[in-house]
């Protein structure tokens, strides 16, 4: 299952099922070198480690930073607290919609879904018309 976010990965604990998972954002990480995938995975594994050890991990605090620095020092990795992937996220927005009304607003999206139009229609009176999509559409089996 793909998720569409600026985040390259995340760790989640589901209280109802008791399951934990680390998810990586494949579309973003496919645009980056392999070492970035490894470092994002290590970052999320630190969250997982702190969780199973019952060590409070609030906003990448001291415990997280100590673990991150230890792993970086011992492995030569370059795990960071924040990994900006804004360029890659924007590059994934290949479905473009333009308002045919007076505002001419341009909306770029990752998913092939028209922007919500009720509020916009009240404000501008226009409709969003698709003006660009990927040249080589992928099927769900490719994802």
UniProtKB/TrEMBL annotation:
Pfam family, one: SPRTN_ZBD
One GO process term, biological-process aspect: DNA damage response
Chief localization: nucleus
UniProt key word Cytoplasm: no
Domain SprT-like stretches: 2-131
Recorded GO MF terms: metalloendopeptidase activity; polyubiquitin modification-dependent protein binding; single-stranded DNA binding
Subcellular location: Nucleus
GN (gene name): LOC121401195
One term under GO cellular component: nucleus
Identification of the protein by name: DNA-dependent metalloprotease dvc-1-like
Keyword Transmembrane helix: no
Organism: Xenopus laevis
């Amino acid at each position: 299952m793909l998720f569409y976010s600026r985040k390259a990965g995340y760790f989640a604990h589901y209280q109802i099922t008791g399951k934990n998972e680390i998810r990586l954002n494949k579309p973003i990480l496919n645009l980056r070198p392999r070492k970035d995938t490894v470092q994002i995975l290590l970052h999320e594994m630190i969250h997982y480690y702190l969780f199973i050890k019952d060590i409070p991990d609030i906003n990448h605090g001291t415990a997280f930073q100590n673990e991150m620095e230890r792993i970086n020092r011992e492995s030569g990795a370059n795990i960071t607290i924040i990994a900006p992937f804004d360029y890659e996220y924007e590059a994934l927005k290949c479905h473009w919609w333009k308002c045919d009304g007076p505002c001419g607003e341009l909306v770029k999206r990752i998913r092939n879904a028209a922007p919500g139009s009720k509020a916009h229609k009240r404000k501008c009176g226009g409709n969003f018309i698709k003006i660009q999509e990927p040249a080589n559409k992928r099927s769900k089996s490719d994802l």
